[in-house]
Amino acid sequence: MLTVYAGDYVVSEWGPARDRGDVEASAAATAVSPRLLPRILLEGERTEADVVFGLNTDVTKQARESGLFAPHNVDLSPLTLPIDWSDDVFLPYNYGHTAFIYNTERLAEPPESFDALLEAPDDLKIVIQDPRSSISGLATVLWVQSVYGDGAEAAWEKLAPKILTVTKGWSESYGLFTDGEADMVMSYTTSPAYHIIAEEDRTKKAAIFPEGHYFMVELAAKVASTDQPELADQFLAFTLSEPFQEMIATGNWSFPAALPREQWPEGFKELALPEEVLFYSEDEAAALRDEAVEAWRRALSR
Amino acid sequence: MASRAVALSRGSAAAWLAGLAVAALTLGPVAAVLVRAGGWGDLGPGDWQALRFTLLQALASAGASVALAVPVARALARRRFRGRGALVALMGAPFILPVIVAVLGLIAVFGQNGLANAALRALGLPEMTIYGIHGVILAHVFFNLPLAVRLLLQGWLAIPAERFRLTASLGLSPWAMFRVLEAPMLLRIAPGAFAVIFVICLSSFAVALTLGGGPRATTVELAIYQAVRFDFDLGRAALLSVIQLALALTAGLVALRLGAGSGFGAGLDRVARRWDGRGRLARLADGLWIVLAAGFLLTPLAMVALRGLPGLTAMGPGTWEAALNSVTVALISTALCIAWALPLATRGGELVGLAGIALSPLVLGTGLFLIVRPYANPFALALPVTMVVNALVALPFALRILRPEAEAVRADYGRLALALGLTRMAWLRLVFLPRLRRPLGFAAGLTAALSMGDLGVIALFADPDRATLPLQVYRLMGSYQMQAAAGAALLLLLLSFGAFWIFDRGGRVNADA
Amino acid sequence: MLTLEGIRYGDGAFSLAADLRLSPGGRVAVIGPSGAGKSTLLDLIAGFRRPDAGRLLWQGRDITAAPPDRRPVATLFQENNLFPHLDLARNLGLALRPDGGRLRADERREVERALDRVGLQGLGDRKPGALSGGQQSRAALARVLLQARPIIALDEPFAALGPALKGEMLDLVRGVAKELGALVLMVSHDPEDAKRFAGEVVLVADGVAAAPVATTRLFEEPPEALRRYLGR
């Protein structure tokens, strides 16, 4: 029996894979990803987890330095990510990009670029998430940082009057958007897939900007203190297998990390993909993070 | 004289035990976090601003809640009309509402796309926005106005009818009557109400952020969240939570000194016969205040109900399971809280009990996790820990309700019980509990409702197989199922209010006056 | 013999000293100006207050530290002599079973007899709220009868009753006390009560509870403190 700590969205979709007997796992899960790493750090080497599922790149540096995770021994060649990935500890299983989602019935002509968004009239209202309490919020800040560099704070200042509000997490923002509170919401390029597949609604679209979109990936890792390293390796390898990858797209509403586009579920194939994908390595991100968040805070506090 | 008299309060060992349990459950987690951190942390650049904003919004929210409660409570105290009892009960609902549900309801009314703006547009007037510090205060007033009204209403109803008769026979002007009768009562009750609401608003987080419109509205609780979740800086979290705790306890001490500690207990459906306010203007003003307050408090609730209805069928079995868990948790939390409150229903006990709402839920959860982890799997303890924490958080409210009445029972019947040599059990079973039936029902109802909606601590202990209903609402939202989430939120609202109603009612039926 | 030996009690500006002996079976009125400490004296005897100094003895036994229910005293308070939410039978039963347990058949009969004795036959299932003021006083007296203590302390329990009713109650108390052979201590501010009911009077004034004096002699030659109180 393998103990897996995971974001609970995964667990709810766990059933099919487990039922097929591909892997035996007793999934014990915490609610949402930002809570995963603190929990492991609190438990330290006494943790019961063998595998952790649902980490993000913003915590990999801290996680790596804690020494609590071990290399995964999984062949990375099946990966189909838009960037190169050679990490031997953290294994991607799905990904997406930051993007503003809009409703075509409400906003017929969305901004065509990030610059255009900054220059848009102030009555265009957007909702974003707080980078201090939300992963997508932090990704947004890094996105602006990667597009505007030293001009990030100035960019945030231009964006500020259009920001209706900042929420604690993604759910609240998206709820506000679907309630019609805002024209655009900070979310993922994959969000429209839910509306297409679950609701047959094609009015929700991601605005694709030529400046590029920030890459967000979700990762699994083996806990160093596991007493079942082989089983853990087996499980990690399984996450890149076709059955799991086919399930994860609609389970987690994200692009599968190791599945060619032709094999994606129908709704996903329709999605617009960014030409340019932006990403900071964990060291770059760690170096930039505090200042980028502080610039965000300063600009929006004015 | 009382100090020299033979102690009439029974079960002082139980009181000590209950008090120590509160101290252990609040200071213990802070200490655990501190030990783990290896010392206090430093405050970050935004922390001072967060502290300032937290104080500012808590002061403004508490002030506005109490100020608005004065005319509303006064109107309710001197008007009789059909459905007054039901209105008073229903207007209490926002206080027991889970935060997320209430915020959705408020946005449905006051948001960009809400009813208020629709009305303004129809009238050709400029639109309003709820986002900003005024939105934060609006939301806090929405949550806490019911509490303030209840406290003040109780004060008004406690003014003996003879005094009104006296002022009527003297023919005092409304202003003179206010100064003679009502102002002294307000000076006694209002500080306590202000302090309790201030403490509640201190630990506001999601409301302040969502409606505050951005990082200007950063509260201390958010800074704690950031310290734990993102920076894993436990020392800073401990420092911030101790600052928050100190602020809250200071407010509590001030309230205990100023306020005469009148409860917001039972018997609110009584109307004292009064001879003032019979003028047309006074009647019109009272009517207007009641309508405004009812509209402000009830419209968002109606919106929650309206939007939740279609979702009720889309929720899936997980939600019903979560609802069952929530009901179980609420019932056990309630029993626990009442058992805890009875020995603490004294002046000192009430101050001790205040620690429960004053401590950051996140630090509480993290500390408990650190304490529990070496001995047991937190997953297995998810629900028990939630029950204990709910009871702890509801304790100050239960004590507010129970203490005045418990003291009265002790004062009235303590000597007789002593003279008869009643055993502790006989006193509890035959005298104390039966005499406290009405306030017990009210306290139990409030505790059950608060426990139903609480999400404070479960996050770190969350067990996917044993989710509670508030957690389920977040989960559904997190997986794009907004309609199902609205349905679950409505279910939560119904369960919370239902639990309150049943307990409160149970305390009244066949209760001896 | 009830002996108050060098009893001293103080609370802020208030103080009371008592050094006196009372004989079993006597009827003693405690009179004096209001606020002088009449009720405090009763509280000290009944055990609701502890003296700062001195000893309290009953038949030579030291009861200074005994709790109220272990003293030979049954008290009738000014009010709240009955629990309003319990019926009379239940109220009286508590005198026999302080743990609130079910009464045995003989105990139930005892309760009925006590009710009969005070003229409340058949009212055991009524709650106090359903009775008149006089009936409530009778029920409280029935409770005292059941407690069967050698000292009965009355802290103005009949103050709210009219003169005729009060007279009736005092006669009833006299009868009950005789049955029990009990010493009765009655606080009153009405000298007529004392003359009518009590053989002896303890005057409480100026911080001192004086030794008992025969009622007739006291009113014939009132001391200075009593003259002031009586307004003569």
Task: Explain what you see.
- The complex is a heterotrimer of chains A (302), B (513) and C (232).
- With 302 residues, chain A is α/β, with parallel strands linked by helices.
- Chain A has helices spanning 8-12, 15-19, 36-43, 57-66, 114-119, 135-148, 152-159, 170-178, 191-199, 229-239, 242-252, 266-269, 282-301, and strands at residues 2-7, 25-30, 51-56, 69-70, 91-103, 126-129, 163-167, 184-188, 204-207, 213-223, 255-256, 277-278.
- Chain A folds into two domains: 2-95 and 216-269, D-Maltodextrin-Binding Protein, domain 2 (3-Layer(aba) Sandwich), CATH 3.40.190; 97-214 and 275-301, Periplasmic binding protein-like II (D-Maltodextrin-Binding Protein, domain 2), CATH 3.40.190.
- In chain A, strands 1, 2, 3, 4, 5, 6, 7, 8, 9, 10, 11 and 12 form a twelve-stranded mixed β-sheet that branches.
- The radius of gyration of chain A is 19 Å and the shape is globular.
- Chain B contains 22 helices and no strands.
- Chain B has two domains: 1-39 and 315-513, MetI-like (MetI-like fold, Orthogonal Bundle), CATH 1.10.3720.10; 40-309, MetI-like (MetI-like fold, Orthogonal Bundle), CATH 1.10.3720.10.
- Residues 1-10 and 261-270 of chain B have low confidence and may be disordered.
- By secondary structure, chain B is mainly α.
- In chain C, strands 1, 2, 3, 4, 5, 6, 7, 8, 9, 10 and 11 form an eleven-stranded mixed β-sheet that branches.
- Chain C has two domains: 2-72 and 149-230, P-loop containing nucleotide triphosphate hydrolases (Rossmann fold, 3-Layer(aba) Sandwich), CATH 3.40.50; 84-147.
- Chain C has 232 residues and is an alpha/beta fold.
- Chains in contact: A-B, B-C.
- Chains B and C meet through helix 17 and helix 18 of B and strand 6 and helix 2 of C.
